[in-house]
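Progress note, sequence design subtask.
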């Protein structure tokens, strides 16, 4: 019984504390009169705004392509470094651990973080 009461209180307070949603363009235009909506729809787009929008889209697309190319290059390098690390580890035995192995592992870790950050930047 007590858990039901706590659950009810949590639900009740979640409705009280719930953030208000901003008005969207659709809900704002729904409040306009039909004449005002028609007038709003008939306004021609500004050519400067359209060209700026296209320019921004082109710049974003180019930046995304460059980021993708860097990711491919870095992952190829990461693969090569991992392969080198495997060869170093295969050559070592349980009694020796080469300094090259540690340096290669650190280089891989640094590059992997860089790739991860570049991937996150795309989202």
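Output:
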């Amino acid at each position: 019984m007590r858990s039901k009461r706590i659950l009810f209180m949590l639900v009740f307070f979640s409705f009280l504390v719930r953030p208000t949603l901003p008005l969207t363009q659709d809900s704002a235009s729904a409040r306009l009169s039909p004449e005002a909506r028609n007038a709003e729809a008939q306004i021609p787009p500004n050519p400067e705004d359209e060209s700026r929008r296209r320019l921004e889209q082109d710049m974003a697309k180019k930046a995304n392509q460059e980021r993708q190319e860097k990711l491919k290059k870095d992952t190829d390098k990461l693969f090569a470094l991992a392969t080198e690390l495997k060869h170093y580890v295969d050559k070592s035995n349980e009694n020796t651990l080469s300094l090259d192995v540690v340096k290669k592992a650190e280089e891989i870790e640094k590059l992997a973080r860089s790739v991860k950050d570049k991937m996150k930047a795309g989202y």
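The radius of gyration is 29 Å. Work on this subtask will continue into the next period as scheduled.
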